[in-house]
Design a protein that fits this description.
It is built from ten helices and eleven strands. The protein has 265 residues and is an alpha+beta fold. The chain folds into two domains: 141 residues, Sandwich (Jelly Rolls), CATH 2.60.120.10; 97 residues, Winged helix-like DNA-binding domain superfamily/Winged helix DNA-binding domain (Arc Repressor Mutant, subunit A). The relative contact order is 0.15.
């Protein structure tokens, strides 16, 4: 949880790395002394559409503090099917297993909405954590929250219908981005929620009457409260972590939000 006081970060800090404003909530929450110690090891990186940040079972070479955009944690099967088991935005560091002494991911992580982040060599991060107790504590907390999110998403994918899962995904994306418009396709949504395109199209037609407006390869969230009523209970369960993740103030006025794009728009 964000610490209060003169030595700790806040959403109003103008922290910079390589001339780039820091929006990642982990880097905002740590004390300024720890941020200054970590900054020399951080490299600003553009995260393009469909960029793989980690590959399933591959060794983690570096970590990335996501600064903008959205990444998906995806489980793939041998027959080519896949389903999203987690979503990560500016509240996340891709590479959390390093904090637990692990060297590989059990999921593939790809950028589904382009953005940017700050990368750090995995070995440098592990060495730095010994001297940065607040950062280490936050990352351990994030690792615990991530495990709870994975369990909730697994239950959701098994127990709830496609309309509920699509609504949950749209709301989770909305929490992490500065836009009310998500540019995506039914085919991409089908991959994320683990079903086929026709089934997603039927669900989207129903949701169009309950909080969204569809455009050409885009989804406009026009009535968030109504959309929340269509989501399953899993969204509310996941949203309870927003304060700890620094996402409490994520929802902004529509006029303040640029558009989102996804790899298949």
């Amino acid at each position: 949880m964000m610490k209060k006081g003169n030595n700790h970060g806040s959403q109003n800090d103008d922290r910079m790395v390589g001339g780039q404003l820091v929006r990642n909530t982990i880097l905002q929450q740590i004390p300024i002394s720890e941020f200054d110690a970590l900054r020399p090891f951080l490299t600003f990186t553009q995260l393009r559409l469909a960029d793989p940040l980690q590959r399933e079972h591959s060794r983690i070479q570096s970590a990335c503090f996501v600064n903008s955009g959205i990444a998906s944690l995806i489980v793939e099967t041998g027959d080519g099917r896949s389903v999203e088991v987690g979503i990560a935005g500016r509240e996340e560091m891709i590479g959390l297993p390093l904090v637990a002494g692990l060297s590989a991911y059990s999921q593939t992580v790809i950028m589904q909405v382009p953005g940017n982040g700050f990368t750090i060599e995995g070995s440098a991060l592990q060495r730095a954590l010994n001297a940065l107790p607040e950062l280490r504590g936050i990352l351990i907390q994030r690792l615990g929250i991530r495990s709870l999110q994975l369990a909730q998403n697994a239950a959701c994918n098994r127990l709830h219908n496609v309309k509920q899962r699509v609504a949950r995904w749209l709301l989770a994306a909305h929490d992490r981005m500065d836009s009310d418009i998500v540019r995506t396709t039914h085919e991409f949504l089908a991959k994320l929620v683990g079903t086929d395109r026709p089934t997603v199209s039927v669900a989207m037609a129903k949701l169009e009457q309950r909080g969204i407006r569809r455009g050409r390869a885009s989804i406009h969230i026009v009535q968030r409260e109504t959309l929340e009523q269509e989501a399953c209970e899993c969204y509310a369960a996941l949203q309870r972590f927003n304060a700890e993740l620094g996402l409490e103030s994520a929802i902004r006025r529509e006029s303040d939000r640029p558009e989102l794009t996804s790899p298949l728009s």
